[in-house]
Amino acid sequence: MARAEKRVRRKVCKFCVDRIEEVSLRDERRLSRFVTDRGKIVPRRISGTCAHHHRKLTRIIKQGRFLALLPYTAEHGR
Questions:
Q1: Residue 70 in contact with residue 31, Cβ under 8 Å?
Q2: CA atoms within 13 A on the CB side of 72
Q3: What is the rounded distance in angstroms from the CA atom of residue 39 to the CA atom of residue 22?
Q4: Quick check: 5 pLDDT over 60?
Q5: Which of 2, 53, 65, 69 has a CA-to-CA distance to 37 between 20 and 30 Å?
Q6: How wide is the angle at C-alpha 44 spanned by C-alphas 50 and 3, nearest 5°?
Q7: pLDDT for position 6
Q8: Are 25 and 63 in contact (CB under 8 A)?
Q9: What is the pLDDT of residue 4?
Q10: Is the pLDDT of residue 42 over 90?
């Protein structure tokens, strides 16, 4: 009996697809997609972002937390 081959579709970077060069602090809805409900930054292998944009994304998320635009943890939003 032949093994069933499992094809996993590779995730594509949302920033590359939308041709976004700079990640903005002002786009809170886009940034919140890359942060879990507990406040952790989603890893590259799960989010599908490329290394270039993920480095920018983490820097912007950390700046947003410092400026109180994004919560550090879930309890901070309460």
A1: yes
A2: 4
A3: 22
A4: yes
A5: 53
A6: 100
A7: 79
A8: yes
A9: 72
A10: yes
Mean pLDDT of 29-53: 92
Q: Where are the domains of the chain?
A: 14-77
CA angle, 75 then 63 then 39, to 5°: 30
| Owner of token pair 């490329």 | 50
Distance CA 58, CA 52 (A): 10
> What predicted TM-score, i.e. pTM, was given to this entire model?
0.79
11-15 own/partner pairs: CB under 8 Å, 24+ apart: 11/47, 11/48, 12/48, 13/48, 13/49, 13/50, 13/53, 14/48, 14/49, 15/49, 15/50, 15/53, 15/57
Instruction: Say what the pLDDT of residue 76 is.
Output: 58
Tell me which CATH homologous superfamily contains domain 14-77.
Ribosomal protein S18 (4.10.640.10)
